[in-house]
Design goal:
The chain is an alpha/beta fold. It has 10 helices and 9 strands. Helix 1 packs antiparallel against helix 2.
Amino acid sequence: MLWLYQRAGRLPFILLLWPVVAVYWLSGRAARAASQQWLTRVQAVAHQQQIALPRPLSSYRHFLRFGDSMLDKVASWRGDLQWGRDIDFASGAEAVISAAEGKGQLVLASHLGDIEACRAMAKQVSGLVINALAFTDNAQRFRAVLESIAPQAGVNLLPVSDIGPDTAILLQQKLDAGEWVAIVGDRTAVQRQRGGERRVVWSEFMDQPAPFPQGPFVLAAALRCPVLLMFALRQQGKLRVHCEAFADPLPLPRNGRQQALQAAVDRYAARLQHHALLAPLDWFNFYDFWALPEEEQRDA
């Protein structure tokens, strides 16, 4: 489908997207069930908190938004998105980013919205380099797709299998150079750690305990750098970049380490929920988010 976008533009791509997504929606039973579960929980929390949700909400539109976000990634790296017309800052975000100018930052991102468009636009508009850690095979395959269309897209995408000393040293070098590093904080590893354990922290999310990975928060503490939260959400026909300070640095003291880690994850989960309620269809975790993953099962 990307060849169609390259030759004919966005509208023909969107028109073709509807039937293609319909096939995936009809055949993807597990992802469809996860989408319906997500929307049910979002609507329950929004009703409880008296929050007006964007309409209409449906599982099929959820799938459509995911497909559309793939195009946003490609379009942003090709230079087809224009600042102001297609993407802009949410209230307060520009001030946070301006205050961080020239200083290395760790961005706690997520699978809510489109951090890839943030990376592309930051590079094109201001020259800011945002490196992204990519852990999954799917991420590396998508990198290959992006590079086939926009070769510069993969330059600062860092595929890693785990975070060891070499990775930490590389990231520290990039931070020292004034670059930013983005890592998602919402997806737990499918593979178990040594001893069969999963290093997760359970935190309340949409009125239900959900597992969050320890790794991104431990890494943020080890790097001892300012930490930001960043989301790019589709709102009112544009991508809106939300950015806020999270910690400077993130403290995980030896005494009370687990309590400090729990508090950090709880704050992240609360802000993730807040932004998810602004754009529920931008949630791109198409699996049961409130359960530990089964090995070799997750594919979204």
